[in-house]
Amino acid sequence: MDISLKKRMGKHIVNVSIWIIALLYSFPILYMAVTGFKPEEKVAPPQLFFTPTFENYRAVISNELTLHLFNSSVITVITVLIAVLLAVPAAYAIAYGKLKSAQSYYYWFITTTLLPAVAVVIPIYLALNFTKLIDSRTGLVLLYVGAGVPLMIWLVKTFFEDVPFELIEAADIDGCNRVMSFFKIILPLIKGGIFSTAMLVFITTWNEFFFAVNMTYNKAATLTVYLNRFLTQQGYFWAKMCAAGTIVVFIPIILGFFTQKALVKGLTVGAVKG
Amino acid sequence: MKKKFFKSLSLIILSLAIFAVSFAGCGSGQNEQNPSATTPEGTTADQPKKSTELVVASVNNGPMVTMNELSSEFTKETGIKVTYVMLTENDIRSKIQQDVAVGSGQFDLVTLGTNDIGTYLDNGWTTELQPLFDKMSDADKTAYDFDDLIKANIPAYSSATKGLAAIPLYGESTMIMYRKDLFDAAGLTMPEEPTWEEVYQLAKKLHDPSKNIVGMALRGKPGYGENMYTFGAILYGYGAQWFDMNWQPQLQTPEMKAAWEFYKKLETECGAKDVTSNGYTETLNLMASGNAAIYYDATVSAATFEADNSPIKGKMGYALSPSGPGKGNTQTIGGWGLAITSSSKNQDAAFKYLTWVTGKDYVKLVAEKKGWINVPSGARTSTYKDAEYQKVASFADITLKSLSGASFDKQAVKQTPYTGNTLPNIPEYASIGEQVGQLLADYVSGGKSIDNALAESQKVALQAMKDGGYIK
Amino acid sequence: MQTTKTLVKPKKSPIRYLLLPAVIFVAVVTQIPFLMTIIISFLKWNVKRPDIPVTFAGFDNYAYIFTDSKFYSVLINSLVQSAVSLVLCTVLGFLLALLFSKSFKGINIARSFIIVPYFVMESVTGIIWKTLMLSPSFGINMVLSKWIGIEPVAFFSSQLSLVTIIILIVWQWTPFLFMILLAGLQNLSEDVLESAKIDGAHGLKLLYYIKIPMLKSYFEVGMMFGLINILKVFGLVFVTTQGGPGVSSANLPYYVYRTAFYDWQMGRSAAIAVITVAITLIVIQSFFNLIRRRQKGVA
């Protein structure tokens, strides 16, 4: 056999096995999505052959699901907006504020991300109850902003530092004031970074479980709570459970798919600089 | 100049953020209930609410799902709106507990398990019901017919000191449910009043994993409302009990040990694989899908097996809760009651709904809309006298017999300082039962030796008794 | 980080006011509640018994925890769970990154399939693994063991429940390390690699002496971020094993939760929470120091 052909064959085998590994790794998700199309009686125990049905998806797209979808969307979008609003100026101040304590502020923000949610659950429950914010979207947004801002500052600061300081100094000499130089020079350079970290906040907020379970009853409950209840409420209706699960993970997966590159860059720009 | 600028900029950012946070509260999904509190613009918010609205926190068991659906009928009659917050048993217990403990008044009515009912009234979290019943007009009293409620239930729905605390939505006991067809095929018979040992022998003979049949479907998942609920019956059957009259925990007695060993034998030799992950839902499904021979659990499950779409409809036999070497009747009293929270601002409306949903007419309403098989069981004597109900519910007799035979205060061989059978009626039980349930599961799945598990259980109970001031 | 400091003259700038909104917000939401948790940890407070007054308990709660054998089991579970998961995620993530750093048509899509689990919420991960995958009666577990001809594995028994949790964490967090390390591999300077090859470094040698050291900072950032999040894992435990049987799969966050919402012992729960935070800080700090020391050692 001709050597180059052999080589090409070998390459193909490697490529195919890469694909197999990739599919095996995400098998649980794919299996979930497929199971959502199975008629209930073919799910447990699993059967290979079935005629796909939309029945389960139709059944779970109910008022209940839409309510929780609405909650998740509103909470997540507003959280991300506020996190950007608060974190970007703060990161800017840490990067360019000529503060002696800039570094300590920075580490302080990072340390707050270490705090496990359970460590504050009792006081937060009492506080939300006192302010009548239990089971409200407002309450959850407050909590999520508190978690999202440090994460954003952590990452966005490194983007700011990526901007050569000479650029800003030059802008200062040009007579741009600070705010103008921010919008004209710095922002365009780092908007990709801000966007990718905002997406990270989006995904973590969308997927947040602990506060969502403990600080809501029904009215403000998010999709992640809804899904957790699905398992026990619906007993063994696995097909419907899978249909609901597929719908729920769809948004973060799609977002993740489109933003993964920016996300990785956001996280590793800092890594390269140490 | 510059300083001022940045100061005001930061103020603007902060207020923008706060505005945005509160903005999250407005706009609506469905069921928006409380639009007044946090809306900043207040355009849609200021419509005054005239009608009363009741919020019921409820476990999502079948009968309550029906209650939720039929509450629109109540709204039609009275104009009072009823909204249900329905969660699974574990979820709802802790939500209700959180709510009443801080007195937040989110709920007007709550469903409570029998072991919580007395405590809640004693702690002032729920309203005394007797005065409300006394205030009823004579006509209402006659219509409601309080004496029709099954007598054996009442102690389980009352506090020892403050009287009636809740009304049963449905009452349940425990019994053996088995597949007559499988028994016949194997030439076996289930005695009407079996012993635990007999149940084990029968289960063992019918246990056949190669045909996907497990001999015994019995809860193994840890939890005070899970494995401890059914294990509680076994425990009394073997003559054990939780505490002696001085509140000393009795978890290391030979009787207790025998009960644990029997339970493990039964679960590991005749039960499902990985039995400690099977709770109420899982075992019910195992039986309902035709994959189990014998099932021991709450009497309400029988309705699932006899439902029209059930593959094992008409193939079922029923027997009394088994006895053990220690004690004859091991039937439990359980079920769910409806109580009014004391933080509710709509006490009268709440009472109106309470009597509506536990009244005689409601039984008829369910029968009419959902069929007789779905009427609340174990609550009213008249239900069991109804010919229609007897026709569809082949388990009616044995259910009533189980319930009437169950004892709320003489549950053990020796005297106990507590009432309540499989779920002892003390505030600490949830915590003790949860931890002992975990240890029991750990023992069953081979993680801990019997002596270790029992010693740790004893320690758990002892600590709880000390914390609660029962013993020094 | 250092670059700004040297360039910037240390003069108070009004820009520092821009920090305030974020600081206020974060402090109100995270720091003040945690201070309250510390206060609660000194109280004897059982929510189920309003008849017993809430009293100051001194260090009783801490004394109770440190003499409780269950606490030590949970602590060990937590440490084992975090350490093993982190190592497995890193090794597996790196191996996958090496494999997937090849480029051919469609590789980006193949990579996405590896990354997907990272974007799936904990409750869904827990549920699908508990039911579809590992259920001994109806899951893939049953299918595979039938095919091989063995008894289905009891993944939720005392012996295996911790392993099961670790499997789930690894499945969810390997993609994250994969993403980071893959980026690192793609950023490796071709020149250095070429000259190393000329010097005779190939295969494993090249990997061990050149590639891994060059990726050091990627490993650090990935592992640090991973560790912070793995230490906080709660939803996976809550949805799948509820910490059981016994406490065989409980970690510290879950134990805090259980003490608060099953035992209703608020003081004790708060004390465990405080200890959890202290341990988290210690673990992260020592991990950080480890990185720093090795950095110095290498440089």
TrEMBL record, chain A:
<dbReference type="InterPro" id="IPR035906">
    <property type="entry name" value="MetI-like_sf"/>
</dbReference>
<feature type="domain" description="ABC transmembrane type-1">
    <location>
        <begin position="69"/>
        <end position="259"/>
    </location>
</feature>
<dbReference type="InterPro" id="IPR000515">
    <property type="entry name" value="MetI-like"/>
</dbReference>
<feature type="transmembrane region" description="Helical">
    <location>
        <begin position="12"/>
        <end position="34"/>
    </location>
</feature>
<dbReference type="GO" id="GO:0055085">
    <property type="term" value="P:transmembrane transport"/>
</dbReference>
<feature type="transmembrane region" description="Helical">
    <location>
        <begin position="140"/>
        <end position="160"/>
    </location>
</feature>
<comment type="similarity">
    <text>Belongs to the binding-protein-dependent transport system permease family.</text>
</comment>
<feature type="transmembrane region" description="Helical">
    <location>
        <begin position="74"/>
        <end position="94"/>
    </location>
</feature>
<keyword id="KW-1003">Cell membrane</keyword>
<dbReference type="InterPro" id="IPR050901">
    <property type="entry name" value="BP-dep_ABC_trans_perm"/>
</dbReference>
<keyword id="KW-0472">Membrane</keyword>
<keyword id="KW-0812">Transmembrane</keyword>
<feature type="transmembrane region" description="Helical">
    <location>
        <begin position="237"/>
        <end position="258"/>
    </location>
</feature>
<feature type="transmembrane region" description="Helical">
    <location>
        <begin position="106"/>
        <end position="128"/>
    </location>
</feature>
<dbReference type="GO" id="GO:0005886">
    <property type="term" value="C:plasma membrane"/>
</dbReference>
TrEMBL record, chain B:
<dbReference type="Pfam" id="PF01547">
    <property type="entry name" value="SBP_bac_1"/>
</dbReference>
<feature type="signal peptide">
    <location>
        <begin position="1"/>
        <end position="24"/>
    </location>
</feature>
<feature type="compositionally biased region" description="Polar residues">
    <location>
        <begin position="30"/>
        <end position="46"/>
    </location>
</feature>
<protein>
    <submittedName>
        <fullName>Sorbitol-binding protein /mannitol-binding protein</fullName>
    </submittedName>
</protein>
<keyword id="KW-0732">Signal</keyword>
<dbReference type="InterPro" id="IPR006059">
    <property type="entry name" value="SBP"/>
</dbReference>
<dbReference type="InterPro" id="IPR050490">
    <property type="entry name" value="Bact_solute-bd_prot1"/>
</dbReference>
<feature type="region of interest" description="Disordered">
    <location>
        <begin position="30"/>
        <end position="50"/>
    </location>
</feature>
TrEMBL record, chain C:
<protein>
    <submittedName>
        <fullName>Carbohydrate ABC transporter membrane protein 1 (CUT1 family)</fullName>
    </submittedName>
</protein>
<dbReference type="GO" id="GO:0055085">
    <property type="term" value="P:transmembrane transport"/>
</dbReference>
<feature type="transmembrane region" description="Helical">
    <location>
        <begin position="79"/>
        <end position="100"/>
    </location>
</feature>
<comment type="similarity">
    <text>Belongs to the binding-protein-dependent transport system permease family.</text>
</comment>
<feature type="transmembrane region" description="Helical">
    <location>
        <begin position="270"/>
        <end position="291"/>
    </location>
</feature>
<dbReference type="GO" id="GO:0005886">
    <property type="term" value="C:plasma membrane"/>
</dbReference>
<feature type="transmembrane region" description="Helical">
    <location>
        <begin position="112"/>
        <end position="132"/>
    </location>
</feature>
<dbReference type="InterPro" id="IPR000515">
    <property type="entry name" value="MetI-like"/>
</dbReference>
<dbReference type="Pfam" id="PF00528">
    <property type="entry name" value="BPD_transp_1"/>
</dbReference>
<keyword id="KW-0813">Transport</keyword>
<feature type="transmembrane region" description="Helical">
    <location>
        <begin position="218"/>
        <end position="239"/>
    </location>
</feature>
<feature type="transmembrane region" description="Helical">
    <location>
        <begin position="17"/>
        <end position="43"/>
    </location>
</feature>
<keyword id="KW-1133">Transmembrane helix</keyword>
<dbReference type="InterPro" id="IPR035906">
    <property type="entry name" value="MetI-like_sf"/>
</dbReference>
<feature type="domain" description="ABC transmembrane type-1">
    <location>
        <begin position="75"/>
        <end position="285"/>
    </location>
</feature>
